[in-house]
Amino acid sequence: MASSQKKQKQSKNSLSLFDRLDNLIKPRLNLIFYLSLVFTVLFGAYLFDVKISTGGDDSTYIEMANDFLKGRAFPSWHGPLYSIFLSLPMLIFGVKVVWLKLFSFVFIIAHLVLFYYTFRKNISPTIFALVLLIISVNSSILYFASQTYSEAMYMFLQSLIMFLFINIYLGTLADNSPSTKEQALYWLILGFFVFLASLTRNI
Description:
74% of the residues lie in helices and 0% in strands.
């Protein structure tokens, strides 16, 4: 018994500082995730800007969405899918800028949620916790949570693509991997969302 405890103690002492941090943070990742969500909501609300920015692009998206809604023109510049998306809340709420901006807020929160579920089991808990907290208080990211720019929607689609890609890929490596037909369907779904992302931001 004493020998076993001695070996465990020696094994514990042989761990690097980084490994010890990983072991400390791993069971607390859920708590850190919820904390990052609270930070995102609090700081996002604090930085929320109800005005149209002076950049001009955000008002252009709204104008293109309005033109699309009224059948005057199809959005063909600067990521047409975002303008098409904006036409949906405009159909319900009208041209109310705060409502349109709130959708960007939701996209930023959804992006963080997908980011967490994508990487929580795939990278070091220490690094992952730091990245989560940095994202949740980053003013450059939270700026887009209150703008009618396409960045927030694109970040959500980007996180969704990474979530699908990693889960599909890991599924092909599993012992009970899907059939070739199912895998082809999964990759087609992934390709569809990549296509949507390309229509959201022309990069």
